[in-house]
C-alpha cells in the first residue's frame, strides 16, 4: 500500500493523523517488508518522537490494522507483528527461522485449490494464513 492510499483510508475513517500517529506510520513505511512488533515500532518511533509511549503505539497499530492499512499476524509466543498491507485479496504466507527468528515471505497463494474445494462444499472462505517453520539458509549451514 502506498502513502496516497493510506491517506485516503485515514480520511475515509475520519482518523486524525497526529504527530505520534504519523511517526508510527513513518516507521512502518521505513521498514516496509519487515514484520515489526509493537516494541520494535516504539524503539524506532522514539528516534522521531522521544516522548511517545507504548500505549499510543499499541492503540495506533490496532486502529491501523482495523482499517486494513497494516496487516497483523501472530508469530512466536503470542506476539503480534505488523507490516504495511499489500492490498491483495489474500495475504502472503510466511516461513519463520527457528534459529534466528528471521521471517521470510512466500508470495505464491498455495491454498487456492483448497479454498475452491471448501467453497464447493458450501463454505465461504474470507481469508487464510499459513506459516512454515524451519531454518533459513544461513542457520541451516550452522546446524
Q: What is the number of E strands?
A: 5
Order of helices and strands: HHHHEEEEHEH
CATH homologous superfamily of the largest domain? Answer: Winged helix-like DNA-binding domain superfamily/Winged helix DNA-binding domain
Query: Which descriptor suits the 3D outline?
Result: flat
Helical content (DSSP H or I, runs of 4+): 40-55%
Number of helices: 6
Order of strands, widest sheet:
4-3-5
* Highest-level CATH class of the largest domain: Mainly Alpha
Sequence stretches where pLDDT stays below 50 over 5 or more residues: none
Radius of gyration: 17 Å
How far apart are the termini?
37 Å
Oligomeric status: single chain
Could you give a short description of this structure?
With 143 residues, this protein is an alpha+beta fold.
Please render the helix and strand layout as text.
Elements lengths: L2 H10 L6 H12 L7 H11 L5 H13 L3 E5 L5 E5 L8 E5 L5 E4 L5 H9 L10 E4 L2 H6 L1
Parallel strand pairs: 3-5
Antiparallel strand pairs: 1-2, 3-4
Helix pairs in contact: 2-3, 3-4
Give an overview of the whole structure.
- This protein is α+β, with helices and mostly antiparallel strands.
- It has two domains: 3-84, Winged helix-like DNA-binding domain superfamily/Winged helix DNA-binding domain (Arc Repressor Mutant, subunit A); 93-142, Dna Ligase, domain 1 (2-Layer Sandwich).
- The chain is built from six helices and five strands, in the order ααααββββαβα.
- It has helices at residues 3-12, 19-30, 38-48, 54-66, 112-120, 137-142, and strands at residues 70-74, 80-84, 93-97, 103-106, 131-134.
- A three-stranded mixed β-sheet has the order 4-3-5, with no helix packed on it. The protein has a two-stranded antiparallel sheet with strand order 1-2.
- A hairpin with a 5-residue loop joins β3 and β4 (103-106).
- α2 (19-30) packs across α3 and α3 (38-48) crosses α4 (54-66).
- The radius of gyration is 17 Å and the shape is flat.
- The model has no long low-confidence stretch (mean pLDDT 87).
